[in-house]
Amino acid sequence: MRTLCVLCGSNPGRRPEYLGVARSLAETLVGRRIRVVYGGAAVGTMGVLADAALAAGGEVIGVIPQSLMDAEIAHPGLTELRVVGSMHERKAAMVALSDGFIALPGGLGTLDELAEVATWAQLGLHAKPIGLLDPLGYFDLLLRFLDNAVSERFLRAEHRALLLREAAAEPLLDAMAGWRPPVVAKWVDADGAPVR
After folding, report:
1. Is 181 helix (H, G, I), strand (E, B) or coil?
2. What angle do CA 77, 81, 84 make, to 5 degrees?
3. Is residue 89 classed exposed, middle or buried when 0-12, 13-18 and 19+ CB atoms within 10 A define those classes?
4. pLDDT tens, 43-52?
5. Whole-angstrom distance between the N-terminal and C-terminal Cα of the chain?
């Protein structure tokens, strides 16, 4: 993994630890010579992530829609800033640039990006690892929702397993480095016939 996309928020969150997680992840990525791709903003956990990676001597590529560029929240000091036409283009560009994805605690935008990269993996549109960096248990409710979706047979267990979760960056990166795409078993009904 040479380039990882970090999905994170334009808000700092309630607890200062959220900013610490972003800062620590950035330093860990740079220490492993991994380039950072992210949403391009100078605010929230996004801004802290970019600032920390740059301060540690890393490369940071931001991808930002023109509408947010116009709102003057783009980070002015990145290695590279790509301005795209829409949020859809932003996500496609971040996927194309990256060898994997790490989600930090965030809001609807982070959830949207996470859901899209996970759905694309489920559909076989990419075979890149997806990790949740979660030292504070922020993603517990989301993962409970997904476990329930497996129980209710709206989601296959193999697809639920697409989301790796660790409390610290180093073990998460190690898990992502060893990750392989799942082999998806077919669901069968009570008579053993495949269910689509």
Report:
1. coil
2. 150
3. middle
4. 999 999 999 9
5. 34
